[in-house]
Amino acid sequence: NGGLERWADEVNGVSAMVGERSEAERAGRELLSRTTDALPSHVVTEPRGFATTCIVPSRLVGAIIGRGGAGIQEVQASTNTRIVVREIAGDAANHTMTIAGPLLNVCSAYMLMMKRYMDAEKLCDRDGS
Fold first, then answer.
1. pLDDT average per 10 residues of sequence, the chain (129 residues)
2. In what order do the strands lie in the sheet with 50-57?
3. How far apart are alpha carbons 26 and 28 in whole angstroms?
4. Rounded Cα–Cα distance for residues 34 and 40 (Å)
5. CB-based contacts of 61: which residues, under 8 Å, 6+ apart?
6. Cα(36)–Cα(122) distance, integer angstroms
7. Would you say 64 and 109 are in contact if contact means Cβ atoms under 8 Å apart?
8. How far apart are CA 99 and CA 103, in angstroms?
9. DSSP for the chain, written as a single string
């Protein structure tokens, strides 16, 4: 079928432009898939929810949160989670970031916030901040 062949050629052309995923990325995505597939439903639907906390450098907090909190609000809205960033008493160099909600939502929000973290780090490194 000519239409199907043209579509396959277009897909292959886009793949060539974008480039192949790295082996590490493929392995990471496979691990994520195996892990989520293995979770029993009682864990995924646990009504009490889950939380995770991590440390983020104070110098990146503004970029991670976004102007007027827009970055956090966007991630909260898309993942149905609650994200709180707080100062750490006695540690001006770092803040805590806590994400709470259903398990898979928390994991998704964490990944999105780590993308914001890495983007902020790259931006600060580029600007020399």
1. 51 51 85 91 87 96 94 96 97 98 94 94 78
2. 50-57, 91-101, 82-88
3. 5
4. 12
5. 85, 95
6. 30
7. no
8. 10
9. -HHHHHHHHHHHHHHHHH-PPPHHHHHHHHHHHHHHHHS-HHHHT-TT-EEEEEEEEGGGHHHHH-GGGHHHHHHHHHHT-EEEEEEETTEEEEEEEEEEESHHHHHHHHHHHHHHHHHHHHHHHHHT-
Do residues 82 and 39 make contact, with C-beta atoms less than 8 angstroms apart?
Answer: no
pTM above threshold 0.70 = yes
Q: What pLDDT is recorded for position 15? A: 47
Tell me, what's the pLDDT at 67?
Answer: 94
pLDDT of residue 63: 92
Give the pLDDT of residue 46. Answer: 87
